[in-house]
Amino acid sequence: MRAALLALCMSAVGSAQAQTLSSDDQLASAVLAAPEPSRAGAHVYGYDTDGRIVTLREGSNELMCLADNPMNDGWSVACYHRSLEPYMARGRELVTQGMTNPGGRNAARWKEMEEGTLPRPDPMAVLYVLHGSGYDAATGAAVNPFLRWVFYLPGATRESTGLPERPTGPGAPWLMFPGTEGAHIMVTPARP
User: Fold this and answer.
1) What is the reported pTM?
2) Residue 185 lies in a domain
3) How many Å apart are CA 79 and CA 127, to the nearest integer?
4) 109-164 pLDDT, tens per residue?
5) 73: domain range?
């Protein structure tokens, strides 16, 4: 039984590694989350065959993009304002240290921001997240794409923004984690 479980796990790891796109395809797919005018100059991270994050291209503008992690279920790429990089990099670092619980990672980063050891993002720093069924390298397009927007605004509250603290309908903006260092405005359109 133990051998069968180990073989199944090894098969899953091998399968995930086999799904790693080429560097060129990772780069092309990662920037799809960014607005068209910002894609060519975005800094792009991807994954090597061992699942480590690597720089695929140095950037020349305000955006950082991250290719799909082949070790995760589903397909998702993201681009975000450069001022969010310390926050995002710290989150990735905490994962490599074994902190897989998102709530724990958030609490650790927010505490570090409050203490001044982790820089705050610029006010209203944006994160674009593109989900889909996958990436079609032949067409250069995401399959079944769904884009959502996140606007980081540390410390924002319902009172300071006028936004509700829960979604009120598809595409309606709302404030998540109000009053914290991780406060952000969510805009999630209805799925097609």
Assistant:
1) 0.85
2) no
3) 6
4) 999 999 999 999 877 899 999 999 999 999 999 999 999 999 999 999 999 999 99
5) 21-151
